[in-house]
């Protein structure tokens, strides 16, 4: 069951807290790749914290993907269609290059 959304669709509400929703203009195939990279980066953050390693690189990947999804940075509803497309395409290119994916 998906989380509740605000009336304007810009935010999801989880446990009474608002979080910026993913940009609905991101095609599902691209969003799926980005979500997978996000989960891998989050796992890497946790692994770094558990082992005492520096989580900075993993956190940077989390940020990159969250920006690509429209969940951080300039709100997607304040961007033109071209800006929105460039934002998620840039993130997708970085993930596919390996800059936003999981570390081994």
Write the layout of secondary structure elements.
Elements: E1 4-5, E2 11-14, E3 17-20, H1 28-51, H2 56-69, H3 81-97
Antiparallel strand pairs: 1-2, 2-3
Helix pairs in contact: 1-2, 1-3, 2-3
Oligomer: single chain
Q: In percent, how much strand structure appears in the residues? A: 5-15%
What are the low-pLDDT stretches, counting only 5+ consecutive residues below 50?
100-104
Give the ordered list of helices and strands: EEEHHH
| Tally of alpha and pi helices | 3
Report strand order across the widest sheet: 1-2-3
Q: Work out the helicity level.
A: 40-55%
Gross geometry: globular
Structural class: mainly alpha
* Rg estimate, integer Å: 14 Å
Distance between the ends: 32 Å
- Please count the beta strands (DSSP E, at least 2 residues each): 3
Characterize the main sheet: 3 strands, antiparallel
Number of domains: 1
Mean pLDDT: 93
Could you explain how this protein is built, in words?
The structure is a single chain. With 104 residues, the protein is mainly alpha-helical. It has one domain (24-97). Helix content is 53%, strand content 10%. The chain has three helices and three strands. A three-stranded antiparallel beta sheet has the order 1-2-3, with no helix packed on it. A hairpin with a 2-residue loop joins strand 2 (11-14) and strand 3 (17-20). Helix 1 (28-51) packs antiparallel against helix 2 (56-69) and helix 2 runs antiparallel to helix 3 (81-97). The longest helix is centred in the middle third of the chain and has 24 residues, at 28-51. Mean pLDDT is 93; it is low at 100-104.
């Amino acid at each position: 069951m998906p989380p509740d959304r605000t009336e304007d669709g810009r935010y999801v509400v989880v446990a009474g807290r608002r979080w910026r929703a993913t940009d609905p203009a991101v095609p599902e195939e691209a969003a799926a790749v980005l979500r997978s990279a996000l989960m891998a980066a989050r796992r890497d953050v946790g692994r770094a914290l558990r082992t005492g390693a520096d989580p900075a690189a993993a956190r940077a990947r989390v940020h990159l993907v969250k920006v690509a999804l429209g969940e951080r940075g300039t709100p997607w509803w304040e961007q033109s269609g071209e800006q929105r497309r460039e934002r998620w395409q840039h993130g997708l290119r970085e993930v596919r290059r390996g800059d936003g994916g999981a570390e081994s």
